[in-house]
Amino acid sequence: MTINSIRYIDSEQSSNRRIGRLSPKPPPKLWSPIDPPFRGVQALPSEGYKHSSGETAIVIDNGASLIRAGWSFDKTPRLSFTPTVARYRDRKFNRTVSYVGYDAYADATTRGQIRNAFEPGSSIVSNWDVMENILDSTFVRLGINGEDKGIGRPVVMTEPVANLGYTRKTMSELLFECYYAPSVAYGIDSLFAYKYNKGNSGLIVSSSHTSTHLIPVIKSKPVTSSITRLNWGGEQGTEYLLKLLRLKYPNFPGKITDYQVEEMIRQHCYISNNYDKDLRNFLDWSGLEERDRVIQYPFNEQVVVEKSEEELAKIAERK
Q: Region 255-270: what's the mean pLDDT?
């Protein structure tokens, strides 16, 4: 009896699959690729400087993917932009122009001159000229004009786990000697967040753009000797998806950029709670249309103009 019931269930499921295959399917939903992240001219959030005092700190989340900055009394960052700078020589005005953050994606000329402040594949600052341009833009956008020969506010800045001594030393020299910061405090962003959420003892899983760290905390103190680093982050996920796309579509006519792949991961990927079950049921006909993702890139078809018999005859006469 058990065998018959199993056969009956299998036959019923196979009949449902046949019906699902033969039933008309709605047209797939189309997504468009993300354009370069140029945001145009935006109003500067400079009113926070008027409400600040000498004890109000400037908080800078110095990340390899995004730079976030604001005041200590803000609930959300006032600034958020990429740690990139594009610098080129404008021949028309005969001067060097610098574009910081999303402004570096203004056109093809600036995109070709983009430089990142961090070492590729890590959260360590390696290009200090770019970092100085980023700090200049950050302080100016926050409303600090430098009339008092410095920023006049303490700085709280995040840094990676086990940051190099040389990197911290150079950053301190830049903040103290170039911007005359009265004081500077460094810290790890995940520990700041754990303290803000009133955590006492637990395990922090901090997944960033370049890596993932496991930080144990006991009685509000991190156990630094037991911190573990996993070499997997958002950048590695982007590279892996880009390799899969290039492997599946080797003759793809357009160019897929890293930023477009990052947006694909944000919009269409998720963390599975049961990987084996999701993988086993991924190709089931029920709900397949909802799981299907079609991203349509612009395509210009090349029109071949056919020559008439008279034109071909003239060409033959010339030969």
A: 86
